[in-house]
Amino acid sequence: MKRKIAILLILLLSMTILGACSKNESASADVVKNNEGVSKIQFKDDSGNIVKMEAPAKKIISLYSAHTENLFALGLDTEIIGIGRSDAYPAAVTTKDRFDYRADPEKIIAVEPDLVLIRPFIKKSKPEFVQALENAGINVVSLYPDKFEEFPDYIKELALLTGKEEVAEKKLVKFEKDLKAIENMTKDMGKKVNVFFEATETEYRTITSDSMAARAIYLAGGNNIAADAKSIRKGTSIASYGEERILEKADQIDVYVSQRGAMNSGGNLHSISIRSGFDTIKAVKEERVYTINEKLVSSPTFRFSKGVMELARMFYPEEMDRLDEFKRDEPLTRAQLAKITVKFKHKGIFAPTSKYYRKERKGHSYGTFKDVTMDDPNFDYIETAVLSSYVETEKDNFYPDKKVTREEFAKTLYMLTDLRDQEGAVNIKDMDQLKNNRIVEIVVENRLMTLREGKFDPTEMITEKEAVESLEKIKSMK
User: Fold this and answer.
1) Residue 114 DSSP SS3
2) Percentage of the chain exceeding pLDDT 70
3) Which of 119-128, 186-195, 409-418 comes out lowest in average pLDDT?
4) H/E/C letters for each residue in 42-91?
5) CB of 434 within 8 A of CB of 458?
6) Would the CA dihedral through 219, 166, 383, 199 be positive or negative?
7) Beta-carbon neighbour count of residue 418 at 10 Å?
C-alpha cells in the first residue's frame, strides 16, 4: 500500500512540473524550486502553450493595453521596456518605447526582452510574428480572461511571471472590497433602472450576459434589458441585438449607455436621438444617454471598479453624487473642491484615449501632477475637475491640501453655471482687493455668495458648508 501511495505522489508531482494546470487553479501553485533554490515558473497560458521560466521577468514588453495597465499597477515601471502602440494608461506610458505586433518582429528581438506579453487574438491573427519571437528564444505568453470570474487568476499569472505575488494579492483584496462596497450601495435602491448597453453602433450590438460589462451593470444596480443577447461568435463578448429589438423595448429603457473605444466612437444624446425611431426610447426622451470609455468596463484591469462606480453614478445620480459629506464648518481644500464640482455636475470621470498623448498641451496633461499620485482617492475627481476647467491650477502641481479662498471659489461657481448680469450694480467695498472683479460681481449679483458688511473678503477661506450652500442655490435657479 505504501508503495502505491508513493507512486501516486510521484505522478501528481510530475503533473505539476509539466504545468498541466487548469485555468481556475491558483497561479501561485505553478512555482516550483529546483535544487539550487531558483524559481521555476511553469503553467499553461491562454493559447494553450506551456510557459517555462527560471525566474521572474526583468525586461518586459507588453503588447496589450490591459497587460500594460496591470503591470504598472503591480509596480513594474522599471521592468517595462516596451508597450503597444495604442496604450494610454497610466501617464507613465509616455516614457516607454512603443512596439507593434503588425510590424517587423526584429524591432522587438533587438532589445532582447525576457518576456513579451500578448493576448490570444495576436497569436491567432499574427502567428508568424509570435513564431519569430519564440525562435529568437524570447518567452511569449498569451493571456486574456474571457469572463469576469477569471480576472483574479489572470492577475495572479501576471504576478507569477513578474515576481509580484504579494502586491497582486493586496491589490485583489482591495479590488474585491471596492466592488462589494459599490454593490452594497446600490442593492437597496428602490426601482432598479433598465439599461441598454451599446457595445458597437454596427448593428447596434450589445454585450453577453457573462461579460465584464454585464457584471458591471449588475454591480452598479442596473437591470441589463438585453441579458438574452447571444454572442456573434465564439470567444467574444460582443452580442447581436439590433434596432428592431431595441425599439420593441423603447418604453422600458431607463438608461442608454454607449461604449466608447476602438470599435465604437460612443454615441451621445444627439447622435443617438436622430437615429430612425430612437427618439421614442424612454432614456432618449428623458436625456439619460451616457457614454463610457470601454477601458473602464470592458477591459480586464483594476480600473473596472471605477467603471462600476461610474455606471452607478449614471443609474442613480442623485443618490450616488450626494454632497452630504461636505457640510462641516471646516475649511474646504482644493481636493474637496474638485470632488464637489464633479459630483455636483454629475460629470463622468475623465479617462484618456489612445490618441490623448499624441498632442502637445500647453497646460496640464492628464496624470502628470507631481503632488497627486494615481493612488490618491481623489485622483479621478481632481483630474476631471481640472480638465473640465472647474478648478484652476498650475501645469505640474495641484496643491490638493491647500485651503480654498472665497475668490477662488467664486471663479469655480462662475465656471459651473451660466450666470447672467442682474439689474442693479453691487457695491463691493473691498473691490480694490479683488483680482477677478467682474466674476465676483456677477456671482454676488446672482446671490450665490454674500457680502459681509459690504465686503467680499476675497482671501478668507470658504468652508465646506458654505460651498455646498452656494451650489444648492444654483440648483434653485434652474
Assistant:
1) coil
2) 91
3) 186-195
4) EEECCCCCEEEECCCCCCEEECCHHHHHHHHHCCCCCCEEEEECCCCCCH
5) yes
6) negative
7) 6
Spatial neighbors of 117 by CB under 8 A, at least 6 apart, are 60, 61, 62, 63, 64, 67, 71, 141, 143, 158, 161
Cα–Cα distance, 164 to 143 (Å, whole number): 17
Asked if 26-163 and 170-315 have one fold, the answer is yes
Structural domain spans, the chain: 26-163, 170-315, 324-477
The answer to whether 136 and 120 are in contact (CB under 8 A) is no
In this structure, which topology does domain 26-163 adopt according to CATH? Rossmann fold (3.40.50)
Q: Look at the domain 170-315 and name its fold.
A: Rossmann fold (3.40.50)
Give CA separation, 453 vs 116, 433, 457, 468, in Å. Answer: 68, 15, 10, 22
How distant, in Å, are the alpha carbons of 64, 110, 144, 182, 243 from that of 119?
A: 7, 22, 6, 30, 32
Cα–Cα distance measured from residue 464 to residue 329, given in angstroms and rounded to the nearest whole number: 6
172 in Cβ contact with 86 (< 8 Å): no
Cα(441)–Cα(66) distance, integer angstroms: 49
C-beta separation of 311 from 386 below 8 A: no
For residue 315, the SS3 value is: helix
Whether the link from the prior residue into 90 is cis, omega within 30° of 0, is: yes
d(CA 26, CA 43): 10
The model's pLDDT over 331-388, given as tens digits with 9 standing for 90+, comes to 999 999 999 999 999 999 999 988 888 888 888 999 999 999 999 999 999 999 999 9
Cα–Cα nearest to 217, from 242, 190, 198, 240: 198
The span from the CA of 268 to the CA of 271, in Å, is: 5
Q: pLDDT band for position 1 (50/70/90)?
A: very low
Mean pLDDT of all residues in 115-126: 96
Asked if 470 and 409 count as a contact pair (C-beta separation under 8 A), the reply is yes
In this structure, are residues 156 and 30 in contact, taking their beta carbons and an 8 Å threshold?
A: no
Amino acid letter at 453?
A: E
Other CB atoms within a 10 A radius of the CB of residue 472 amount to 12
Distance CA 305, CA 231 (A): 24
Angle between helices 212-219 and 304-315 (to 10 degrees): 50
**Cα distance between residue 180 and residue 187, in whole Å:** 10
* Residue 196 cell numbers, joined: 441598454
CA distance 471 to 130: 56
How far apart are the C-alpha atoms of 295 and 65, rounded to whole Å? 9
Helix (H, G, I), strand (E, B) or coil at 470: helix
| pLDDT for the residue 476 | 84
Q: In terms of residues, how long is the chain? A: 478
Evaluate whether 74 touches 158 at the Cβ level (below 8 Å). yes
